[in-house]
């Protein structure tokens, strides 16, 4: 046998061995390699619409909606009313009153032109939306709150109606702000997402309504009509737990079309795709904490508190040993953003909503972009929130045994599944007169690359006139409204004092991780503004962009800085937190794991932020 023949036989044998190994190798291994490649590419994929919006006009829900708008304009009407199926009898009566009210309808015409408006919600009034006069009236009468949206001017109008007296108590307009959408628009968003050819192609099957989550959550993409808040958008989401991906279908409700779609990673999870709904004590919470104030007296502290429609747990009229301390404190929003690649393909021309959350997309640097939500926390019924009160407020002793806390748990009903969130509002009260405003994030969210920013609003009650100082070697009085990044190096970089008594005041101690709660610090921005009732004294609508990391939303209140020396001032404190899903380093994270007993157990790695206020005389 020649040398050449031996070499040929050897090569042939090697080839046959390789073929046998491939043939008998487990299919899962081959599939897993392919799936990893697919998943990696999917995580960065932005899908732009390839069809005209006319394809959606044949959808029955859209057809009916457009027909009703056409008939409304033909009849010289300007507000599309809610269907009776969304309203109880008194809400129907409130709607009739408002559709005849000149003040409520004031912004629905521009000269002779009629502007498209939709009534979005009419619900029993929540105490946090009422001014003092309305609170007195609504303790005796049945009052309802209503919201309409002007699609042309991007303005939300909120009204309070005394149904028994057949009277409109108040009308307020919020330019550049959007309400929660009606049930009808939620169904339209679902229908558009289900009929979108791009969605079907990406999923690989024809989805059903049961496959959708977060159909009423507002959402945007940067540099789009959504991000610029010109269009009303939501983002119905389709979750693929096996591939650890979620497909966000951004639906533009102004144009009634699919604006874009985006695959995003969920992070690894053992949480099953289906879990039973938790039993929320909704009626009890509404009756006892949403529709009235509650008084707490403990350890020298006197506190009035309530659950709001969208601003979480709020404390009001707080005093310590008879001296006023706080007029109001609450967390008005959680800005939630995620970073992904693929910005060059991004279309941000329309707004998006997912499960009541508005989804934003914002172009960044190096081909990256940010997308996410503004999360509202609130009452389980009749509120604009999507992260709902679980049980009711609780009073607990501090682990340090030097005070107590008032705390409220808010969560999506399907937490800790992916794209579900859980937050805790906590107010800590110490026996020496100190207090701390605390926000806790318990995951899990839609991915392992999240940036969370809770927007805290704190209105002190030291006097009707106060002064604010920052320390940089010496105390410097702030003359006008302003903001700055909070320094990480100083224990007490700020103080707020009564203008009438310089000894009556509080030092502000930012969280740098010193409070023994495993926090990684606040990394916060501080704003000081002059008090205005319309700037958060009552329930706020969504404040600012979830995903523009250069702004926190409060900037709109200081565009034209006003004098704050010897004025009633409000502090806004906005921490910035990054979550972490790395094994052994988890932070702002939750997962369902198999425990030692062989059963599923929820594991939480919370992140805790917020400043502490210390009386001047206690330092």
From TrEMBL:
Any one Gene Ontology molecular-function term assigned to this protein's record: quinone binding
Xref: InterPro entries: Cu_amine_oxidase_C_sf
Membrane in keyword set: yes
Gene Ontology BP annotations: amine metabolic process
SUPFAM superfamilies for the chain: Amine oxidase catalytic domain (SSF49998)
Transmembrane segments: 7-25
Keywords from the UniProt entry: Membrane, Transmembrane, Transmembrane helix
Record protein name field: Uncharacterized protein
Source organism (scientific name): hydrothermal vent metagenome
